[in-house]
Write a structure and sequence with these properties.
alpha/beta, six-stranded mixed β-sheet, globular
């Protein structure tokens, strides 16, 4: 395996305001920061969180979805201007467990279809909406406590969450992934404010054209992770 073959840098976990109320970066600012850091793509994973009361705050589910999508569209427009691919993702909060789930392999229709599930369980969302090219990844496991993950509804876990404000439990997560033979492992900067960009990236051989192709790459396990030039080869790696 030659790490140089994996030349495309992709941020897998980042947030922009106002879709993610916890972020302090506009979509355009986020894009400019990652372009300056030498990235080829970012996956905008804004929050769909029951605590945001999306269905109550907006006149319709359509309006709630359009609010969520506004950041993605602004980021994509800026990305098209400067040459940075912006892919659509989301971070869905399961109200039954409080766990955050990164979802890749989505489009604007998937976002609209997800809004009615804001107060539903992850299992319901998975059973009703998950397609063949959709991947569910448990974000920052064990952030609050050690607990068994719902492996039966997940495709993988974010082993490396490198948000500098968060308590680091990446070692525990990596061990859990190994011991439970988790299928897909990922890493992300969990960007919310300037200065948190470029903590870790996914590197791929090809630049995915959309979120669905990215999900297929994750399922193929033909990628590496990169922490400031330090290459991590996932234990389930299937590349050459």
């Amino acid at each position: 395996m030659n790490p140089n073959d994996y030349k495309y840098k992709i941020e897998m976990h980042c947030h922009a305001y106002p879709a993610s109320r916890c972020s302090h970066a506009s979509p355009e600012q986020l894009v400019d920061l990652y372009k300056a850091a030498g990235y080829d793509a970012v996956v905008l994973t804004d929050h769909i969180n029951y605590t945001y009361r999306l269905r109550e705050r907006y006149a319709s589910d359509y309006d709630a979805a359009e609010h969520f999508l506004s950041c993605y569209r602004q980021a994509k427009a800026r990305g098209d201007e400067v040459g940075l691919k912006v892919l659509l993702g989301m971070e869905f909060c399961d109200p039954a467990t409080g766990r955050d789930i990164l979802i890749y392999g989505v489009d604007e229709k998937f976002v609209h279809d997800t809004i009615p599930y804001v107060n539903a369980s992850l299992k319901e969302l998975r059973n009703d909406l998950k397609g063949e090219d959709t991947v569910l990844i448990n974000a920052h496991p064990f952030r609050s406590e050690i607990a068994e993950l719902e492996d039966d509804v997940l495709d993988g876990i974010e082993v490396f969450n490198h948000n500098p404000q968060d308590h680091d439990k990446n070692g525990l997560v990596a061990r859990y992934a190994r011991d439970h033979e988790v299928g897909i492992i990922t890493g992300g900067s969990d960007f919310h404010i300037p200065g948190e960009e470029d903590m870790i990236c996914l590197r791929t051989k090809v630049l995915p054209k959309d979120s669905f192709e990215l999900a297929r790459i994750l399922k193929s396990m033909d990628y590496v992770l990169d922490i400031s030039g330090n290459i991590i080869v996932p234990y389930g790696f299937k590349g050459e």
